[in-house]
């Protein structure tokens, strides 16, 4: 496929100037926020903002695949979003179905594997089917894993993990004294995924909104006032450049290599 071609250093610099390809975050998570405000500023219904957000989504997915991000997790629909007006929720579910089916071939061509975390079984049947179809169709792709957090809540994930562990203890399969952070992590929705290196929050809001509460323990946070429909590969690359200028200590004393210190290259 076209995306499997060899890429020169010149191509890398032209596509993403200032980014050290040897230090690209392995896992990027994004809270796709600001669709409603984007629409309101233009006198449009909120649904228009959600549709405009799909364009940003496609561009960011392609950009992540281009520069070597391995995992991209998107907060697409939270457990709290059911409280929104019913017409908006219905429109969001319809947009999910439409987008997955319309752009499935594009994802295939880019080598993107689709995953989902959250209570996907709680989605309407059409939405649930579209998600399952996309997961099955892209299961063999390995260039980028695109994880949709759907009907997802961070607290609910932790409670689900605690319940699953309690059942194992009750059955005699697990001893309480053997439960540590590593064991607990195996019961999370993201058990087979690395923790995010970088969380991006468009729209300027300074909160994580019940997203990946366990996994974000040492994630670098990047907040931008740009609303999600206006978010592009340029904003993504700026977030990654900022990430690479930081020193990640993971609770240790300083002196560990900075995110941007590497050998360079693609």
Explain this structure.
A six-stranded parallel β-sheet has the order 3-4-2-1-5-6, with helices on both faces. Helix 2 (35-41) crosses helix 3 and helix 4 packs parallel to helix 6 (125-137). The model is unreliable at 1-12 and 258-266 (pLDDT under 50). The chain is of the alpha/beta class and 266 residues long. It has helices at 9-15, 35-41, 46-67, 86-102, 104-109, 125-137, 154-170, 181-185, 233-244, and strands at residues 27-31, 71-78, 112-117, 144-152, 198-201, 220-223. Helices cover 40% and strands 14% of the residues.
Characteristics of this structure?
single chain, 266 residues, alpha/beta, six-stranded parallel sheet, 6 strands, globular, disordered N terminus
Shape: globular
Q: What is the tally of beta strands?
A: 6
Share in β-strands: 5-15%
- Average pLDDT, all residues: 91
* SSE order: HEHHEHHEHEHHEEH
Distance between the terminal alpha carbons, to the nearest Å?
Answer: 18 Å
Largest sheet: 6 strands, parallel
Low-confidence spans? 1-12, 258-266
Strand order of the largest sheet: 3-4-2-1-5-6
What's the helical proportion of residues? 25-40%
Gyration radius, rounded: 19 Å
Structural class: alpha/beta
* Separate helix tally: 9
Describe the secondary-structure layout.
Blueprint: H1 9-15, E1 27-31, H2 35-41, H3 46-67, E2 71-78, H4 86-102, H5 104-109, E3 112-117, H6 125-137, E4 144-152, H7 154-170, H8 181-185, E5 198-201, E6 220-223, H9 233-244
Helix pairs in contact: 2-3, 3-4, 4-6
């Amino acid at each position: 496929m076209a995306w499997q071609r060899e890429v020169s250093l010149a191509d890398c610099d032209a596509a993403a100037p200032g980014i050290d390809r040897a230090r690209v975050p392995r896992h990027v998570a994004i809270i796709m926020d600001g669709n409603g405000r984007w629409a309101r500023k233009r006198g449009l219904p909120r649904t228009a903002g959600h549709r405009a957000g799909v364009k940003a989504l496609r561009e960011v997915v392609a950009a992540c695949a281009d520069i070597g991000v391995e995992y991209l997790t998107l907060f697409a629909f939270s457990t709290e979003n059911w409280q929104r007006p019913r017409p908006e929720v219905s429109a969001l579910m319809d947009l999910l179905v439409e987008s997955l089916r319309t752009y499935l071939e594009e994802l295939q061509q880019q080598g993107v594997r689709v995953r989902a975390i959250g209570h996907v079984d709680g989605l309407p049947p059409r939405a649930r089917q579209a998600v399952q179809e996309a997961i099955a169709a892209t299961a063999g792709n390995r260039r980028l894993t695109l994880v949709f957090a759907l009907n997802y809540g961070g607290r609910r994930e932790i409670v689900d993990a605690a319940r699953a562990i309690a059942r194992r203890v009750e059955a005699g399969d697990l001893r309480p004294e053997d439960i540590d952070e590593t064991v607990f992590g195996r019961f999370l929705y993201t058990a087979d995924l690395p923790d995010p290196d970088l969380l991006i929050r468009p729209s300027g809001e300074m909160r994580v909104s019940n997203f990946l509460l366990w996994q974000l323990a040492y994630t670098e946070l990047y907040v931008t006032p740009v609303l999600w429909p206006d978010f592009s590969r340029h904003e993504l690359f700026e977030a990654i450049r900022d990430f690479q200028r930081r020193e990640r200590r993971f609770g240790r004393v300083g002196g560990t290599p900075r995110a941007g210190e590497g050998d360079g290259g693609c």
